[in-house]
Amino acid sequence: MAVENEKLHRMKELVEKLREASKVYYAQDQEIMSNFEYDRLYDELAELEKETGMVLTGSPTINVGYEAVDELPKEAHESPMLSLGKTKEREELKDWLGDKEGLLSWKLDGLTIVLTYQNGELLKAVTRGNGEVGEVITNNAKVFKNIPLRIKYQGELILRGEAVITYQDFEEINSHIDDVDAKYKNPRNLCSGSVRQLNNQITAERNVQFYAFALVKADGIDFENSREKQFEFLQTQGFDVVQYLKVNADNITDAVAEYEQRIQTYEVPSDGLVLTYNDIAYGRSLGRTAKFPRDSIAFKWADEIRETILREIEWSPSRTGLINPVAIFEPVELEGTTVSRASVHNISILKGLKLGIGDRITVYKANMIIPQIAENLTGSDSVVIPDNCPVCGGKTEVRAVNEVQSLYCINPDCDAKKIKSFTLFVSRDAMNIDGLSEATLEKFIGKGFLHQYQDIFHLDRYKSEIVEMEGFGERSYKKLIDGIEKARDVELPNLIYSLGIANIGLANAKVICKYYQYDINAMRHTTVEELSEIDGIGEVIAKAFVDYFSDEKNSVMFDNLFKEVRIIREEIDEAGQTLEGQTFVITGSLNHFGSRNELKDLIEKKGGKVAGSVSSKTVCLINNDAASNSSKNKKAKELNVPILTEEQFMTEYLEMEV
Q1: What dihedral angle (degrees, nearest 10) is formed by the CA atoms of 444, 450, 454, 459?
Q2: Helix crossing, 2-28 with 227-236: angle to 10°?
Q3: Which residues are catalytic?
Q4: CA dihedral defined by 277, 278, 280, 283, rounded to 10 degrees?
Q5: Measured between alpha carbons, how far is residue 396 from residues 16, 325, 442 in Å?
Q6: Do the bridges between strand 296-299 and strand 618-622 make them parallel or antiparallel, or are there none, so unpaired?
Q7: Alpha helix (H) residue ranges in 187-302
Q8: How far apart are CA 467 and CA 526, in angstroms?
Q9: Which helix (H) or strand (E) holds 74?
Q10: What does DSSP assign to residue 268?
Q11: CA 56 to CA 211: how far, in whole Å?
């Protein structure tokens, strides 16, 4: 088995290396290995696949084409996929196990998938769906990051597992989405949408991973009546299985405590644990209830609950017109932080809780993260649903979608739609105005203080109202106005970025400004053809830029804004452009710079670029922890990109004494 595991590990290494080499060669017109080396590694992989009878996802020896479908077909499961019984008590978990051995594993928070293999080939993949009927996502599963497409076992193999997206991949995907409202809310939602795409090319780009948690069928294999042996068998077939610990009554409490520590840094989303009897026959002999199998039980982290008083329902409009009720209550300590507000989500939940101002309520943090109302101990049911939008004063209406009632503003010109654009406008890389959080902007827009960007520079007109607002006072007001006055002095690229033009990030804004020598009139009257000729811009970005300034409304708004600011231009030392044309990546904490952005700014001032991920174009990865197993470190080592400490980079590239 050890030899098989070594071969499997080597196959995974080869697939990753060859896949990266092909990507760089075909997509970036670069080479990271010679044709001779590629052929040698390809032949080694092909031989290992022949020896083991397995083919991993992404192997260049087979071609899995991208495919788009009009809809995902439905299919009934051979046996119902039941939910698990749950407990939050550790002693109850111990009592449930009794004198038996069990496997304690993560309860992963993704999308459950059933895989079926026949004659060693992946035959189909079906989502859990409603437990009775799921959606067939076979083509999508073929582009998951770690599912074997061909296995050694030739009989019918059926297994269940969880499709997930790691926190790191979730953050990486969200980092490329400028629109705050378009960002994904959590990894589970992103994973669910990725797995169920109609075009599996999108799935392939999302780095979906699969962790097996149950073997359903594999005839002819003696598992010695052990769930653990089943896991070991699945591993020999090339599957990643969910992490588990073997436990009994003596060590289960310690095992739960160990998981409790691990969850703080575990990269895969998890909402609890699963305990399963290791004895297969015993577990099956227990049968099942109408809802739950009796061979497994889920453990959910116990919620810390506090009692408090409801003081206000704040109606929070969004750019879509949806108005969410938010409960404001007396501050309480929960899971180590102070909380004073919780979303009530919709009108149906509001009515179900029978909320009223002054009611005694209990609150907790769902999954130890998101504040929620647990119970209303008073139940006065006296909250009045507003007839008018708190932002624009337009009419509201309650709409039912799938029997869930929600409140909407029906005014198509509601100022709430401007919240996301104002949030970008004041952000650090744009106008960099402290004291204007999204929550504060919502309040100012709601009170009619802000309609266009230039209005921010005249908030002093509303001093008397602002100093009386919650969270403000004379000192906070003065700090805000000082920050606004300071923001009047702005560099042109930051001002351009603040406008929120589609696809124009700060880096692109700098490139455009530099090309036109900071002549705003030349920039505003350029053409798509001319802009497209700039290295790194392209037709899509050029069209978005030209279309923005061609719109009369945008042009007038910019003129008004331009009157409020003073453009400053940092003198560029042409002789100091020592990093011109070079790309770097920064990760981890720094010792000599206040933040990664500070170092990034310095690199850009010297003509260099800072990217978010390591590629063959990367000159070096700056990381003070060169020995870490981070994804960036692994990628740098695979591509032979040097990993330098902050001090080494400062000495070699910035010519600074440390």
Answers
A1: -50
A2: 50
A3: 107
A4: -10
A5: 54, 13, 18
A6: unpaired
A7: 187-195, 200-204, 227-236, 252-262, 280-285
A8: 45
A9: strand 74-76
A10: S
A11: 14
CA dist 13 and 10 (Å) reads 5
Amino acid letter for position 345: H
Q: Which of 439, 438, 389, 433 is nearest to 415 (CA)?
A: 389
Q: Using CA atoms of 343, 344, 345, 346 in order, give the dihedral in degrees to the nearest 10.
A: -150
pLDDT for 598 beyond 50 = yes
Q: Which of 415, 396, 282 is nearest to 347 (CA)?
A: 396
pLDDT per residue as tens digits for the range 358-396? 999 999 876 556 788 989 999 999 999 999 998 888 999
Specify which residues 622 forms β-bridges with. Answer: 586, 644
| Torsional class of 393: left (φ above 0), alpha (ψ -120 to 50), beta (otherwise) | left
pLDDT at 68: 54
How far apart (Å, rounded) are the C-alpha atoms in residues 471 and 118?
64
DSSP 395: B
Please name each of the domains of the chain with its CATH number.
2-56 (1.10.287.610), 75-299 (3.30.470.30), 306-409 (2.40.50.140), 415-487 (1.10.150.20), 491-568 (1.10.150.20), 574-652 (3.40.50.10190)
Work out the angle at residue 581's Cα, subtended by the Cα atoms of residues 430 and 510, and round it to the nearest 5 degrees. Answer: 20
Is the separation of the CB atoms in 586 and 613 below 8 Å?
A: no
What is d(CA 430, CA 496) in angstroms, rounded to the nearest whole number?
8
Are 215 and 283 contacting, i.e. CB atoms less than 8 angstroms apart?
no
Closest listed residue to residue 502, CA positions, set 177, 174, 184, 205: 177
Element (H, E) at 113: strand 111-118
pLDDT of residue 417: 67
Q: pLDDT-derived band of residue 566, with 50, 70 and 90 as boundaries?
A: very high
Query: 609 forms bridges with which residues in the sheet?
Result: 583
Q: How far is CA 68 from CA 135, 138, 629, in A?
A: 15, 12, 36
